[in-house]
Amino acid sequence: MRKLFKGKTILFLVMSLMLLLAACSSSGTGGETSEPKDSSGDSKSGDKLVIGFSQVGAESEWRTANTKSMQEAIKAAGHELKFSDAQQKQENQIKAIRSFIAQKVDAIVFSPVVETGFETVLKEAKDAGIPVFLSDRAVDIEDDSLWVTFLGSDFVEEGRKAAKWLVEETADVEGDINIVELQGTVGSAPAIDRKEGFEEIIADHPNMKIVKSQTGDFTRAKGKEVMEAFLKSDGENIDVLYAHNDDMAIGAIQAIEEYGLKPAEDITIIGVDAVKGAFEAMAAGKMNVTVECNPMFGPQMVDLIEAYLAGEEIPKRVAVEESMYTMDQAEELLPTREY
Ligand code: GYE
């Protein structure tokens, strides 16, 4: 099967609008809230806060934009930031959180590299009376009193959007559609959820098969390396690449070109994040679609921290709004992209 991409622009626009409306009506708050820290009226709002931010790393364009958004928002609000880059290692994050606790920061912003294994350190923060705000990625911990709120994207929905686009684009294709998948960091919320959402949709389409799936750790270098291995073992039979982020897709595009095939024509390329690199690849005709995952929520996070410390009730889950973009929109939208 070749050339899956066809310009079903109108249908796509209608779909996007529907997705956007659905996102707007469901975004923001879940039912649960976090009790205010201080209901005595002795508010911390207006004070200069010291905020510790334990970031995952600098593995992708998305991450760099997210770090910048958080740094700028904290500075703009007149607060002090203590920043720690964990280089995608859980033990570095645990150390960073312990050091924030020792320094008695007012709040901890934490973007957990993986979902599990943070219970003890989060308990230590709670015992020290320091509120923790989960940023971008969730944890898989039963005791949800260990964090105030989780501000981030719905990764399962992103996976669904990617698969729905593919189903739409291949509606007329007869025969098997062989998909290779580049997963994000093993054990991370976006890798687990983007896989789940995608698989949920293709489950209703027996001709769609994930024939190979491996982690590329969310980086270009790893994405390229793993795609090279996929191509080497069965290059001619790969119809679609589903990459859990754009950086891995971009690395894979290079591998596909070096192998002698045409990305976006011979192999349909689906990414997630909607970073500038993806828009450039789409504008150059080398990538078909990217599902947006918006990293620019620094200001939203600062608002949540200030509101909580001022005694307001905070929803347990706050969603970031996002969309998706195709090749035919890339050139026009590229100059407007913030990240
Ligand atoms: O998609 C990827 C990054 O957690 C949403 O992490 C984030 C993901 C993002 O490395 O590019």
UniProtKB/TrEMBL annotation:
Record-linked Pfam families: Peripla_BP_4 (PF13407)
Membrane spanning residue stretches: none
InterPro entries: Peripla_BP_I, SBP_2_dom
Recorded GO MF terms: carbohydrate binding
Residue span(s) of domain Periplasmic binding protein: 51-313
Domain of life: Bacteria
Keywords assigned by UniProt, alphabetized: Signal
Any single Gene Ontology cellular-component annotation: cell envelope
Keyword Cell wall biogenesis/degradation found: no
Locations listed in the record: Cell envelope
Signal peptide stretch: 1-28
SUPFAM superfamilies listed in its UniProt record: Periplasmic binding protein-like I
Region described as Disordered: 28-47
This protein's record includes keyword Signal: yes
Positions with biased composition (Basic and acidic residues): 34-47
Family recorded in the similarity comment: Belongs to the bacterial solute-binding protein 2 family.
Protein name (database record): Monosaccharide ABC transporter substrate-binding protein, CUT2 family
